[in-house]
Automatic annotation (TrEMBL):
Keyword Repressor (UniProt): yes
Family: Belongs to the HrcA family.
Secretion signal span: none
Gene3D superfamilies membership: 3.30.450.40, Heat-inducible transcription repressor hrca homolog, domain 3 (3.30.390.60), Winged helix-like DNA-binding domain superfamily/Winged helix DNA-binding domain (1.10.10.10)
Role of this protein: Negative regulator of class I heat shock genes (grpE-dnaK-dnaJ and groELS operons). Prevents heat-shock induction of these operons.
Protein name as catalogued: Heat-inducible transcription repressor HrcA
Primary gene name: hrcA
HAMAP family: HrcA
A biological process term (GO) from this entry: negative regulation of DNA-templated transcription
Source domain of life: Bacteria
UniProt entry tagged with the keyword Membrane: no
MF terms (GO), sorted A to Z: DNA binding
Keywords: Repressor, Stress response, Transcription, Transcription regulation
Heat-inducible transcription repressor HrcA C-terminal domain location: 105-320
Organism listed in the record: Thermaerobacter subterraneus DSM 13965
Amino acid sequence: MDRRKQQVLKAVVEDYVDTAEPVGSRTLARKYGLGVSPATIRNEMADLEEMGFLEQPHTSAGRIPSDRGYRFFVDMLMEAVVPPPELVERLRRLYAERVDQVGRLLRQTAQVLSEATDCLALVEAPRVEPVTFRHLQVLPLSERRAVLVLVTDEGLVQQRLVELPEPASEADLQRISAALTRRLAGLTLDRVGHTVLRELYDELAACGALLEVALEALRPSASDDDHPVFVMGTRRLFRQPEFQDLERAQAVLGLVERQELVRDLLGRQGNDELVITIGHENPYPDLYDCSVVSATYRLGGEVAGRIAVLGPKRMHYPRITSLMELLAQLLTEALERSVR
């Protein structure tokens, strides 16, 4: 593609992103200082359409970028954008505090992403690996409910609700907590063998039913194994012009409400630090009018999960990619601090 066509394509993408209106040659000549007449620009746009980089909506004389046009823009024409200093400072302050609950940190990240992009934010929880127990405590919530607090060897804190089969005194729960910590510290769940369990049941013979539910709570559930994805910003996404069509909006909503599909979508992004999928590059037809921008965050030097935004193809790619890179870095740093 020659330089003039690149300039015209870049201008079409940028104008359409800003206005959500098909772009005409007179608009480009007036706003973008391309140094050629509207007639010349019109010819270049016709060539770009023939080459598959632009397309013409049926109801308009203007042009909009095709999937191929967006892809060329992202790969070849997009210029880096530095996030505003005030936004960087606000985010650094937000992530500076030590966080003792990873889930809260991930929800915070999803909220920030959605607010800053007006898109749907997807934040994948760290992929679950076998955890080594450091400390376990059963805390009473009511007469028949308690919460099991599990601290891993990496310093991560998990909390699991426990329904008690019988009323339990605080002393009973303290005894169970002490025995669990003493017997299980330094072990992963798959190393808790018959001997350890027998010792626990012998020590806590009077609290056998309570011990049973506590041990059951330690076993990871299907949702734990699948590492849930926090989703925020549905209303923001549906304020975009592309999603004023109710049928299209419902199709996207139906997909993101299914955790297994969202995990599959993020899983297909691989472990590259930053991935952009546009339109028909997405694996599901309901997302053919969307783009997904995702970035990896790390824990212990390894990829732990992905953060992503899902929005219309007409998104501000330079601004969103720079924000994603910044948030992935801040999330990685915050997670590393949380496990020290």
